[in-house]
Specification:
Distance between the termini: 24 Å
Strand content: 15-25%
CATH class of the largest domain: Alpha Beta
CATH architecture of the largest domain: 3-Layer(aba) Sandwich
Largest sheet: 10 strands, mixed
Number of domains: 2
Low-confidence stretches: 131-165
CATH superfamily of the largest domain: YjeF N-terminal domain
CATH topology of the largest domain: Rossmann fold
Helix content: 25-40%
Number of strands: 19
């Protein structure tokens, strides 16, 4: 198993293309399935110990991987059973099924086991599991308001509508997962849309998901990600490249013997009507490692290391400013608009956050000639770029191109996009970040990274990583002030 940090993220189509490129070299689908099933079996064997294993197989290639895994586990001496949703529909899955010489139970009749492996539907699902129609030959759309009919085919498996009192596939999956001590999903928990992260049907929350060949968007995007549990990658010998990657631990500069406050980076924060928000951003910039932080506007109190200066064009003209943060508690009145316009014209690298995002438009941002990072949450994003039904990665990419800026599309699933198409996606964030002021802390942390002269995308990624790591260190029920302070520990860990 491989950790997913820094790994490429591929859509369903990109993964198929990568597999087809390997197949074009003469390696068969069956060979790839054998690799995947063997890798799955090795992981399951290590985790199962002496416990029995139940593998649920679907009609497509995900199910084929399950049949191979079952065969290999049996060869290893593991007590393993297979329950199937229907007969295999692809040639490779049929071949894998033929290699499984023991009996196959029906899904609705399967008894629980301590270890559950879901190989029903992985990458490529396009319809809910209760769509009421049989799966296509590739195994992508599923049914589960439909049931297995033991009289409908020579092998005892076929599709028939669910009747009163019968359990749907979703119900079976939940019941078996609840009874298991450990639940493992192959590639994706069944019921999730690969590219959008939509939960087409609500699966159980799995303990572990084994991504085959590459990380997929649904492993990281909500709501799908919440069902995946721990994520690990299995190498199946398919080279993968993508402009999208999982956010990784940053490599940050540390002060040396010749360092001073300005070489470490100067961050200026523009204050507004809610001075507490800009105070949080300033504290975050300091704790994230900036050498000098100045707050431009009306504010008072600790920390004493923070330089507080009245807002003025003269203060903005300081050529030592390496990053200018505006928007945290700015307000939307005439004073806010004047300060924003002055900041946009000051010539410094910018982090535009909060209220400022509602006072600009993409064309105004694109016309600027300085490096820019935008940090909208969902509401601010919609206000700035408009609403859309597209997935979060696509929306972030399009926004970055429209504004010619780095876009940090915040949330439980944070997507960071650059105008050239590069994307970094953060792993699951702490649910306790859903409290006032944490976005202000993020803006300040990114400001410190930008002032330290990191590449623009790297600066945004480093700020997001520090923010997430600080939250994980705090555990439950923290407030934004705690989060800003915890950036010190996050930074010290690197």
């Amino acid at each position: 198993m491989i950790g997913i940090e820094g790994q490429p993220v591929l859509t369903a189509a990109e993964m198929r293309a990568a597999e087809n490129a390997v197949i074009a070299t003469g390696i068969s689908v069956e060979t790839l399935m054998e690799r995947a099933g063997t890798a799955i079996a090795e992981v399951v064997r290590r985790l199962a110990g002496t416990n029995d294993v139940l593998i649920l197989c679907g009609p497509g290639n995900n199910g084929g991987d399950g049949y191979v895994a079952a065969r290999v586990l049996a060869e290893m001496g593991v007590a393993v059973r297979v329950a199937a949703l229907s007969e295999p529909k692809t040639d490779a899955a049929k071949s894998a099924r033929a290699g499984w010489l023991s009996s196959v139970e029906t899904l609705t009749g399967a008894k629980p086991a301590p270890i559950l492996v879901d190989a029903l539907f992985g990458t490529g699902l396009t319809r809910p599991l209760d769509a009421g129609t049989p799966p296509d030959p590739d195994g992508s759309p599923a049914v589960a308001g439909a049931q297995l009919n033991p009289k409908g085919s020579p092998n005892g498996l076929s599709w028939a509508p669910a009747s009163a009192g019968e359990r749907s596939v979703v119900e079976c999956l939940h019941s078996l997962a609840k009874a298991a001590q450990l639940s493992i999903a192959i590639d994706l928990p069944s019921g999730l849309a690969t590219d959008s992260g939509e939960a087409l049907s609500r699966p159980p929350v799995f303990d572990l998901t084994l991504a085959l060949g590459a990380v997929k968007p649904a492993h990281l995007l909500q709501p799908a990600a919440r069902y995946c549990g721990e994520l690990r990658l299995l190498d199946i010998g398919v080279p993968t490249l993508s402009q999208a990657e999982v956010l990784k631990t940053p490599i940050l500069p540390t002060p040396g013997p010749d360092s001073h406050k300005y070489t470490r980076g100067m961050v200026a924060i523009v204050a507004g009507t809610m001075s507490g928000a800009s105070d949080l951003a300033a504290l975050a910039a300091m704790r994230a490692g900036a050498g000098y932080v100045t707050l431009l506007g009306d504010s008072q109190g600790p920390p004493h290391a923070l330089v507080r200066t009245p807002f003025s064009d003269h203060a903005l003209a300081n050529d030592r400013i390496g990053a200018l943060v505006i928007g945290a508690g700015l307000g939307r009145d005439d004073t806010a608009k004047i300060r924003l316009e002055a900041a946009l014209n000051a010539g410094h690298p910018l982090i535009i956050d909060g209220d400022a995002l509602r006072l600009v438009d993409p064309n105004r941002i694109k016309a600027l000639t300085v490096p820019i990072i935008l940090t909208p949450h969902a509401g601010e994003f919609d206000a700035l770029f408009g609403k859309s039904d597209a997935d979060k990665i696509t929306r972030a990419r399009d926004a970055a191109t429209r504004a010619n800026a780095i876009v940090v599309f915040k949330g439980a699933d944070t997507v960071i996009a650059a105008p050239d198409g590069r994307v970094r996606i953060a792993q699951g964030a702490s649910d306790w970040l859903s409290t006032a002021g944490t976005g202000d802390v993020l803006a300040g942390a990114i400001g410190a990274m930008l002032a330290a002269k990191l590449d623009l995308l790297d600066a945004a990624c480093a700020g997001v990583w520090l923010h997430g790591d600080a939250a994980r260190r705090l555990g439950a029920a923290f407030i934004a002030d705690d989060l800003a302070e915890a950036l010190r520990s996050a930074r010290a860990s690197l």
